[in-house]
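Reminder: ligand-aware prediction takes two inputs, not one.
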Amino acid sequence: MHLAQALLVSVLVNVGQHAFAHHTPKTDHEIEVQRALQAAAYYCAPAVESYTASRKRAFAQRTLSHLPGYQELFSAETYADIGDAPHNKDASEAKDHDDDTMMKCTPISDTHIQNNTCVLAPEVTEGPYYHTEGHPIRQNIAENQDGLLLLLDIGVIDVETCQPLPNVLVDIWLANATGSYAGHPFPHPHLVNEQPASEGRRRGLLSAYPRTVHEETWLRGAWPTDKNGVVQFTSIYPGYYTGRATHIHTKVFPEWTPIAENNTFKAGRLAHTGQFFFDEELNMVVDKMYPYVTNPIRETRGRTRNHQDSLNIFHDSHGPEGKYNPVFKTHLLGGVISQGLIAYITMGVNASASYDNFWKG
Ligand SMILES: *[C@@H]1O[C@H](CO)[C@@H](O)[C@H](O)[C@H]1NC(C)=O
Ligand SMILES: *[C@@H]1O[C@H](CO)[C@@H](O)[C@H](O)[C@H]1NC(C)=O
Ligand SMILES: *[C@@H]1O[C@H](CO)[C@@H](O)[C@H](O)[C@H]1NC(C)=O
Ligand SMILES: CC(=O)N[C@H]1CO[C@H](CO)[C@@H](O)[C@@H]1O
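Here is what comes back for the chain with 2-acetamido-2-deoxy-beta-D-glucopyranose:
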């Protein structure tokens, strides 16, 4: 079985080299080849899972231990007080061991993917709100946007080596709590009362809002992956807009040039364009929180559910075999959701791929 798989992968990779040199698959044949390539690339899903899990532990230890009150909550005194009570001598002795193993925030050591196949995240549209210039190189992209604190932990793996991919620029952009993108606050004047398309490819969508405020950069930013192929951002949970499931956009650039004078970058080769989503149950909870409740389409069109996403983007983001998971794994940052969330995801990208860095939709 393993030998057969290895041969299949090697055959498919050779075919792929001709089919995907510089563009996304278009013909039925190309799509079929990509489909088979992706099917062959799913064998290290378990490795991706454990990679994500260990990052999750390390990140949670670091963040939780900095939350106000956390140290007090688990302070040694609390246990010492119990242990020093005369009737509780045994508990005091047991405590010393527990302290070492459970209460100490020992950093989890680095982990690496150990296999040569992995999960390829599918290419999906970048949509009309990407800015080819002006995304700052920074980790905290929230600026002054109000909303639910969201820490993002995004891992990048090269599907050709199945190793974490260090030093690639991960670029992200998302809508604010009420569904607007930085720079695009108003529709075209003649489209102010536009209704969503009722049929055709763009069913459910409005026309794109033009970019009119060039200096706005909130909820946009890019940062290079560290030596473990991981990048972390501070953001807010995205809001929704007409026709689209709640999502975060991403691009991955193995090559880019920082522009020191305005802290942006000039994009080089683009290896991946994708979108990340959230569990429907979580979206439903956030729907009820301020300022998400003030979304202007809440009472009219409402939030588009993942499975109703326009252009089939949520569905397509799972890959042709449906085995890539584009949905973040999330955890509460504190005791209640309003203290924020940590969201983890791992994307498999082809580090040597090269896609066009502009929207043609
Ligand atoms: C990665 O991209 C390169 C360059 O386009 C291509 O030759 C190769 O087949 C791709 N590999 C996979 C696994 O898609
Ligand atoms: C940043 O500076 C570069 C180089 O001067 C310029 O080309 C680019 O337009 C600037 N970007 C923004 C967003 O101001
Ligand atoms: C989102 O951005 C729009 C456009 O700039 C703004 O009008 C709106 O107040 C913002 N939403 C929130 C919750 O701040
Ligand atoms: C290079 C490497 O470690 N390959 C392994 C990937 O996982 C499969 C399935 O467990 C093994 O058969 C390979 O040897």
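Residues 70-103 form one domain. The radius of gyration is 23 Å. We will return to this case in the review session.
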